[in-house]
Amino acid sequence: MAKQYWLMKSEPDVYSYDDLVAEGEGTWDGVRNHSAAINLRAMKVGDEAFFYHSNIGLEIVAIMKISHEHFIDPTDEKARFVAVKVKPVRKIANPVTLKAVKANPKLAEMDLVRLSRLSVASVKPAEWKEILKMAGE
Fold it and tell me: Does the predicted model carry a pTM greater than 0.90?
């Protein structure tokens, strides 16, 4: 199966990309939206995800890899939701803002634009390449 791409949002004052780098491997937990949870369940080891700083910054700042497929979220007392493990790959050359994504017609159908409240979203390969191009890579 081909590698899949994702975008995962975190508020940088709660958990930032630098926090992930400091940990070496992080647990992506606390997701309680069913659509986002379906995306977590679809992730495979080796898939890549953009790390998006939400609330503060509103920008794609880095790339991470899925290092462990879904398991029961340790923060979910009812054991209904899942978490995954992620490892940092690298910061992108230039952060890509939400405003820049919305201004790019090639990204008009991107989940980040269409489903703005979704915290874990899929990214099509063409969208992934376009974001990296926008980042100067």
Answer: yes
